Amino acid sequence: MTQDEMIEMAIKAKVLQPVPLSVNKFWRKETIRELKAFAKLIAQHEREACAKIADIAEPYKSADLIRARGQA
Prior knowledge:
Elements: H1 3-12, H2 29-57, H3 62-68
Helix pairs in contact: 1-2, 2-3
C-alpha cells in the first residue's frame, strides 16, 4: 500500500483532515509515520486472522505463505 493510498483511506475514514501546514505541505512527518505504523499493525492482524483460517482449511501450506508475507 502506498503512502497516498493510506492517506486517501484515512481521509475517507475521517481519521485525517487536510489542514495546510505551509504552502505545499499538508501532513506532518509524524502523522505519516504514525499512519504507517497503524497500517502495519492492521496488516499483521489481518494476515494472522487469514492464516488461522488457512490452518484449518489446509494446514501448514497456505498459512505459512500468508505469514511469510509479513517478513518481506
